[in-house]
């Protein structure tokens, strides 16, 4: 139930499960469904045989397959239509209710555009909000990620939770974990054997700033850092700051998220590349900070911009 | 059907699951939470359910009415006292009025006193409000008054029960023109198919404004009354949607910190015959000038209108100022008969949003073949309790917003 001054949010979370082909996404989705059955699953088929869809063990009415293709920019329209249709059918009682949507992307999808779809489409944002981005990483098969390294890095950089799959087949996966943390230091890594994980840890994962943020070592062009706030910011100034950042380097903001103190309380900031969700009042949680995962945008540059805007306002 | 609400438990109340519009929570001295429920019609009077564990509901008391030509549609709990409304089916029958009970031992409710409102023009009490342990505000006939139209019998009455063994009538108000001897002309009635009467329904009074009664008056709209002089309530303002709408204003719920009034209609006809029945948001910053600014988004009419039974607004969770009750000025919950129980975010009064709902499957004993959720009460743990008018009894829900 809501707390005083915090806008109640009844929107249904959309959990995005991403990861390379064969990494164990479908196994994970099936395991989640066994424990949290009130989920609508949207499966993105890729290739001639919709293997993933056939594996989804759930009622027909709650599993929807998108047309052939990668759930990336050119298919966002399909996702929008599917989600809006599901919301309408739920409201009319044509399908049973669902507590969440799980979108299983194809292996080659960058989750960024999916997140952008949810932030940018106002009709969609009435009923849905972005839930955790879950990236499944096969700790046994390192080679496949190297083939499309940019996508692999984007998937890890965008993640709120990384599920380490097939840990039973790898003797030591600490090196993989270190690689992941180099890209996304605050991310929670959860080992899973045969998709067995605690669904709550995944489906209700909180924004990364609620966890301890560790400074990153740089990996290629990926940068991750936290902008901290010593006192409450003016909401309008924060909005202007984010707009300026987007205008200047939007394409390089792989993920920006966190809770920021403002004069009226706290607001949740969530953004992917050029698109940010509207600022929403939330209760205080963890250390207030904005976590940036960027493609080459340096911490010193962001800090300097904030300091300059703060000083001039 | 559900959105952000989950069923924790249902109890059909020993086969007597047709429930009215009285739900009151008692925080018993032994630590239990007891929910007292009014029945829609005879033979049962009221039922007490131990809801301490909302997943394991237990009936701990259930009582019978003295005869079948009456009902106890409404009740309220204040501490260890409970007031139960008695309404009869024919003019002149008894008991008509309300009864006060000592519920300090929930398993054995004990009658303390009875307030008699019977008379040749009286059907007794339909609804009451009792939250301070001292005063009953109610929609009840007054034997001293003779309505010009028998549908207009129940007026707003104030009864002092500071001494629970001797209830004392201290004030009343009725719409001018509805009683014999009034100077005002009779009000213009709604078309016969919608004419439900110019009489009181909900009579809400809160500690934030103990000198105000927020009175719904069925086909007469809603009123804000000045009750600083309880013997002579005065009307400060009036708002109505009917005509052109189809009457039956049921509840006026003030959200004091927001300067808002939430007004619910009641649907009283099956299969959408009196649709639309809505919940209205009024700007009440100036209590003398009430302005309608929005209606809560209605459940989809194409889905529910002809589904069977009633469809439309009815009771709201009224933020009762009593221990154990949840209070919110941002979220409004209401029951909509076959469209279930629904919650709305009214933090932006110009753009209210639906944020949760639950429509249970039809209960076995339903006359209409559909669920008919009738009333809702939310406790301070956030558990939503709702009752079915047909036979489904009590539902306990968790709301996740």
Topology summary:
The complex is a heterodimer of chains A (313) and B (401).
Chain A: E1 12-19, H1 25-35, E2 39-44, H2 51-55, E3 63-66, H3 76-91, E4 100-104, H4 111-120, H5 122-127, E5 128-138, H6 143-147, H7 149-157, E6 161-165, H8 174-183, E7 188-191, H9 199-203, E8 222-228, H10 235-249, E9 253-262, E10 265-272, E11 275-276, E12 280-282, E13 289-295, H11 299-312
Parallel strand pairs in A: 1-4, 1-5, 2-3, 2-4, 5-6, 6-7
Antiparallel strand pairs in A: 8-13, 9-10, 9-13, 10-11, 10-12
Chain B: E1 2-3, E2 5-11, E3 19-27, E4 33-39, E5 44-50, E6 58-64, E7 70-71, E8 75-78, E9 81-88, E10 97-102, E11 110-116, E12 125-129, E13 135-141, E14 154-160, E15 168-173, E16 203-206, E17 209-216, E18 222-226, E19 234-239, E20 249-255, E21 260-265, E22 279-283, E23 291-295, H1 301-304, E24 331-335, E25 341-345, E26 353-358, E27 373-378, E28 383-388, E29 394-399
Antiparallel strand pairs in B: 1-26, 2-29, 3-4, 4-5, 5-6, 7-9, 8-9, 9-10, 10-11, 12-13, 13-14, 14-15, 16-17, 17-18, 18-19, 20-21, 21-22, 22-23, 24-25, 25-26, 27-28, 28-29
Task: Tell me what the structure shows.
The complex is a heterodimer of chains A (313) and B (401). Chain A has 313 residues and is an alpha/beta fold. Chain A folds into 2 domains: 12-205, 3-Layer(aba) Sandwich (Rossmann fold); 222-312, CobW-like, C-terminal domain (Hypothetical Protein Yjia, Chain: A,domain 2), CATH 3.30.1220. In chain A, 34% of the residues lie in helices and 26% in strands. Chain A has a 7-stranded parallel beta sheet, with helices on both faces. Chain B is an all-beta fold and 401 residues long. Chain B has 1 helix and 29 strands. In chain B, the strands form 7 sheets. In chain B, strands 7, 8, 9, 10 and 11 form a 5-stranded antiparallel beta sheet that branches. In chain B, strands 1-26-25-24 form a 4-stranded antiparallel beta sheet, with no helix packed on it. A 4-stranded antiparallel beta sheet of chain B has the order 2-29-28-27, with no helix packed on it. The chains are: A alpha/beta (313), B mainly beta (401). The interface between A and B is medium-sized, with 15 and 25 residues.
């Amino acid at each position: 139930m809501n707390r005083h001054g915090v806008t109640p949010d009844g929107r249904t979370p959309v959990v995005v499960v991403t990861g390379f082909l064969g990494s164990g996404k479908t196994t994970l989705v099936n395991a989640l469904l066994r424990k949290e059955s009130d989920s609508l699953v949207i499966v993105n088929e890729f290739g001639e045989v919709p293997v993933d869809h056939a594996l989804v063990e759930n009622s027909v009415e709650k599993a929807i397959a998108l047309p052939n293709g990668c759930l990336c920019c050119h298919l966002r329209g399909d996702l929008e239509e599917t989600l809006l249709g599901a919301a309408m059918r739920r409201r009319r009682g044509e399908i049973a209710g669902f507590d969440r949507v799980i979108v299983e992307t194809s292996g080659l999808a960058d989750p960024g555009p999916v997140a952008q779809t949810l932030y940018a489409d106002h009709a969609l944002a009435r009923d849905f909000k972005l839930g955790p981005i879950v990236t499944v990483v096969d700790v046994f098969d390192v080679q496949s990620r190297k083939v499309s390294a940019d996508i692999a890095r984007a998937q890890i950089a965008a993640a709120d939770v990384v599920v380490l799959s097939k840990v039973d087949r790898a003797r030591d996966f600490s090196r993989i974990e270190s690689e992941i943390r180099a890209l996304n230091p605050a991310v929670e890594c959860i080992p899973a054997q045969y998709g067995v994980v605690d669904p709550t840890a995944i489906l209700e994962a909180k924004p990364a700033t609620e966890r301890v943020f560790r400074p990153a070592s740089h990996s290629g062009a990926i940068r991750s850092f936290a902008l901290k706030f010593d006192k409450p910011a003016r909401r309008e100034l924060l909005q202007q700051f984010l707009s300026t950042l987007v205008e200047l380097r939007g394409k390089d903001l792989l993920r920006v998220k966190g809770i920021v103190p403002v004069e009226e309380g706290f607001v949740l900031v969530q953004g992917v590349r050029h698109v940010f969700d509207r600022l929403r009042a939330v209760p205080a949680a963890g250390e207030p900070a904005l976590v940036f995962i960027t493609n080459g945008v340096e911490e010193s540059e962001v800090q300097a911009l904030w300091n300059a805007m703060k000083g001039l306002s | 059907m559900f959105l952000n609400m989950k069923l924790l438990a249902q109890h059909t109340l020993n086969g007597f699951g047709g429930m009215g519009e009285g739900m009151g929570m008692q925080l018993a001295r032994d630590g239990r939470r007891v929910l007292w429920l009014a029945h829609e019609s005879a033979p049962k009077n009221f039922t007490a359910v131990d809801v301490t564990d909302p997943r394991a509901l237990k009936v701990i008391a259930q009582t019978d009415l003295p005869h079948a030509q009456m009902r106890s549609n409404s009740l309220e709990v204040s501490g260890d006292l409970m007031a139960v409304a008695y309404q009869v089916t024919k003019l002149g029958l008894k008991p008509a009025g309300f009864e006060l009970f000592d519920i300090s031992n929930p398993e054995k409710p004990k009658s303390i006193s009875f307030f008699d409102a019977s008379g040749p023009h009286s059907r007794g009490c339909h609804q009451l409000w009792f939250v301070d342990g001292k005063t009953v505000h109610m929609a009840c006939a007054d034997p001293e008054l003779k309505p010009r139209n028998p549908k207009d019998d129940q007026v707003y009455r104030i009864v002092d029960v500071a001494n629970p063994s001797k209830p004392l009538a201290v004030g009343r108000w009725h719409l001018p023109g509805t009683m014999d001897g009034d100077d005002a002309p009779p009000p213009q009635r709604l078309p016969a198919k919608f004419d439900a009467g110019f009489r009181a329904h909900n009579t809400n009074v809160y500690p934030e404004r103990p000198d105000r009664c927020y009175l719904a008056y069925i086909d007469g709209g809603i009123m804000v009354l000045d009750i600083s002089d309880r013997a002579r309530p005065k009307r400060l303002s009036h708002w109505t949607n009917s005509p052109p709408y189809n009457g039956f204003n049921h509840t006026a719920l003030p959200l004091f910190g927001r300067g808002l009034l939430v007004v619910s209609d009641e649907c009283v006809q099956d299969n959408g015959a009196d649709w639309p029945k809505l919940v209205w948001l009024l700007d009440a910053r100036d209590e003398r000038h009430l302005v309608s600014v929005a209606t809560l988004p209605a459940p989809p009419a194409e889905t529910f209108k002809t589904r069977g039974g009633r469809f439309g607004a009815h009771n709201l969770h009224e933020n009762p100022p009593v221990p154990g009750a949840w209070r919110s000025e941002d979220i409004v919950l209401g029951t909509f008969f076959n469209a279930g129980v629904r919650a709305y975010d009214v933090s932006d009064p110009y753009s209210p949003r639906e944020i949760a709902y639950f429509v249970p499957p039809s209960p076995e004993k339903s006359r209409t073949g559909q669920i008919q959720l009738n009333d809702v009460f939310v406790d301070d743990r956030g558990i939503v309790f709702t009752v079915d008018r047909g036979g489904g009894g009590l539902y306990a829900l968790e709301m996740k917003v």
